[in-house]
């Protein structure tokens, strides 16, 4: 059976009309004869939305009981059994009630799609996982119901239901979104113009990215290589040279001229990996690209213009920025350069050739890594040439009558190839010149003179010399390339080992410097940073500057770059100082890579330190936000009730009966008691956060504190079964605080425990701890939510019908931890939740 098709209506905020648009689409399909059912639609009490449901077949919902309350969810099995052509399913990101077939509604939709049924659904931009944190920063409201972006990206159609912020606020004011009593609060909080405008932009940008994906897929499927200028994309080609920073800034200005334009930087690496570009330069250029909002890419290709244009066409680029060639005039006459060649092949892509201060100054190549072969091999080649060629000449003179001159030349050529294989180019060139002289003297008429009688013999000797020189050069080049490849392989292995060591290590910077010291056998490695307010010396990192040691491994660290045997500069304010054997020229490249990684590791440590300093501030900010939320919502209800009761009692125009007056007084007293409890919880939580909670711990017997707790619970205490052994050890705790914790835990257990079944309180000893267990037989809490129930100002379900600020369990855990204890949730065998209060025991010898 073919998978069904998914169509999603995406909105920027509640109330823009997603459900209305979905139902209108459903009615259009029914009018065309489509077999359509409503799997789940939430009207939220909106009259016009509810009117569209008339006449549409609706699959009955499934009723589930959770924590003593009834909830309705979509009956996925019934929808699949009904097997319509299309199902309308609202709120794709909805979290199902525990006990449902799936945890999320989008998972239900996946099953329906797999059954071959088309689905039309709705979702708001704040429910997408990738933008959830951004939405929270904008609105200040954390969205708990999210779904993976991939679910929406896989949809066959995504249609934006758009509405301006002003129009949506007018709908709110007219009562078309929320009930009248909620309109003022909504307009002044979540539905502010700035919030709605930002959410609308998020929705438009997210949908634009999906449209880009669809366009790229369409172009790939249809083999379209030309550029479609749907969006401005600027690609800047980086050589890794000093001019690249100028190109990046120029390309950034070009991209900034068009709103929403993309900036992409690309560096082409030769296919053999021997690019010769300094890693620290590339790292700085990558940082610059990212700082101006671009993305950095690398591609491999020997034909640079072709590789650039293939990348540009693959990303549907509209403009390509390149620098004027650094080659001098003579070199450009022989080869026009990458810019000219790319412009000739660019087609519909606009090419910008940007001048810079390094143009036409010539390419500065690195010094060669040294001879292709070691000295011993070269010496062996010279010995072979000096001894072998005379021996060959003597042997061939003995056979002069049997061999002709061409055969003699072939023997000499073979000897020179042997010399080239052993000693490389220079011994082979010496052998070639010496061989041509010996051939002329001993085998070319007139013999034993350097004169040549025949023109053919002169031509043969000339060709011999050229071939011998060419073979020498080819053999030497092959040896050099082999050595470079071996070196790069070793470098790659070192970097691979380095990366693994850094990822596994707890202190990345120390692990990095330690690996560098081990790899090159150095005495010490020091990372130096310029001290604050120190000025760089005119020559760079030399004397006259103040440096400080950031990290060091090995022996005595260097205090400045001048103390080092080898200095590897990272930037103007950072340098790597090495003590020990000087590295070879070939080692400097890997050392520069180490230096760049050291700078990255240092930056990572700095960011981690800043994040560590910001975490307490973030926690305080979250607490402040949550406190304001609690004050504005949870405290408002008892305060309003108490105020209404007192104002009613003070109204002299109404004659209250004694029963009514007593009821009003009781309402005011209960509301004020609740208000007093909430304020006490808030104050205690703030003291816990500040570490200023007063506590007087003393030896305490559980068989004393538990009965007092049950007395405080009143009639509810009769629904608690206590089984505490008489020989249970005393614990170290504050009596008042522990009793307060137990009241909270037992009250929660009674709230969710089934009627007729008592809450069980038991105690036991484990090593040096005493554990008090409060077990209920309620619906329990999923293991994934065990930590979440202890977060301040949060309840596990916002729809369980219970009131409160959500501080109880958070405060209970904080109080227990302040007494050096632990509060641990675990599943009750057979169903339910057990809260374990673990406190340090006191033995008889510990008592005063």
Automatic annotation (TrEMBL):
<keyword id="KW-0902">Two-component regulatory system</keyword>
<dbReference type="Pfam" id="PF00582">
    <property type="entry name" value="Usp"/>
</dbReference>
<dbReference type="InterPro" id="IPR036097">
    <property type="entry name" value="HisK_dim/P_sf"/>
</dbReference>
<dbReference type="InterPro" id="IPR038318">
    <property type="entry name" value="KdpD_sf"/>
</dbReference>
<keyword id="KW-0547">Nucleotide-binding</keyword>
<keyword id="KW-0418">Kinase</keyword>
<feature type="transmembrane region" description="Helical">
    <location>
        <begin position="409"/>
        <end position="438"/>
    </location>
</feature>
<dbReference type="InterPro" id="IPR014729">
    <property type="entry name" value="Rossmann-like_a/b/a_fold"/>
</dbReference>
<dbReference type="InterPro" id="IPR052023">
    <property type="entry name" value="Histidine_kinase_KdpD"/>
</dbReference>
<dbReference type="GO" id="GO:0005737">
    <property type="term" value="C:cytoplasm"/>
</dbReference>
<dbReference type="GO" id="GO:0005524">
    <property type="term" value="F:ATP binding"/>
</dbReference>
<dbReference type="InterPro" id="IPR027417">
    <property type="entry name" value="P-loop_NTPase"/>
</dbReference>
<dbReference type="Pfam" id="PF13493">
    <property type="entry name" value="DUF4118"/>
</dbReference>
<dbReference type="InterPro" id="IPR003594">
    <property type="entry name" value="HATPase_dom"/>
</dbReference>
<keyword id="KW-0808">Transferase</keyword>
<dbReference type="Pfam" id="PF00512">
    <property type="entry name" value="HisKA"/>
</dbReference>
<dbReference type="Pfam" id="PF02702">
    <property type="entry name" value="KdpD"/>
</dbReference>
<dbReference type="InterPro" id="IPR006016">
    <property type="entry name" value="UspA"/>
</dbReference>
<dbReference type="InterPro" id="IPR003852">
    <property type="entry name" value="Sig_transdc_His_kinase_KdpD_N"/>
</dbReference>
<dbReference type="Pfam" id="PF02518">
    <property type="entry name" value="HATPase_c"/>
</dbReference>
<dbReference type="GO" id="GO:0000155">
    <property type="term" value="F:phosphorelay sensor kinase activity"/>
</dbReference>
<dbReference type="InterPro" id="IPR005467">
    <property type="entry name" value="His_kinase_dom"/>
</dbReference>
<dbReference type="InterPro" id="IPR036890">
    <property type="entry name" value="HATPase_C_sf"/>
</dbReference>
<keyword id="KW-0472">Membrane</keyword>
<feature type="domain" description="Histidine kinase">
    <location>
        <begin position="630"/>
        <end position="843"/>
    </location>
</feature>
<dbReference type="InterPro" id="IPR003661">
    <property type="entry name" value="HisK_dim/P_dom"/>
</dbReference>
<keyword id="KW-0597">Phosphoprotein</keyword>
<dbReference type="InterPro" id="IPR025201">
    <property type="entry name" value="KdpD_TM"/>
</dbReference>
<dbReference type="GO" id="GO:0005886">
    <property type="term" value="C:plasma membrane"/>
</dbReference>
<keyword id="KW-0067">ATP-binding</keyword>
<keyword id="KW-1133">Transmembrane helix</keyword>
<feature type="transmembrane region" description="Helical">
    <location>
        <begin position="458"/>
        <end position="479"/>
    </location>
</feature>
<feature type="transmembrane region" description="Helical">
    <location>
        <begin position="379"/>
        <end position="397"/>
    </location>
</feature>
<protein>
    <recommendedName>
        <fullName>histidine kinase</fullName>
        <ecNumber>2.7.13.3</ecNumber>
    </recommendedName>
</protein>
<keyword id="KW-0812">Transmembrane</keyword>
<dbReference type="InterPro" id="IPR004358">
    <property type="entry name" value="Sig_transdc_His_kin-like_C"/>
</dbReference>
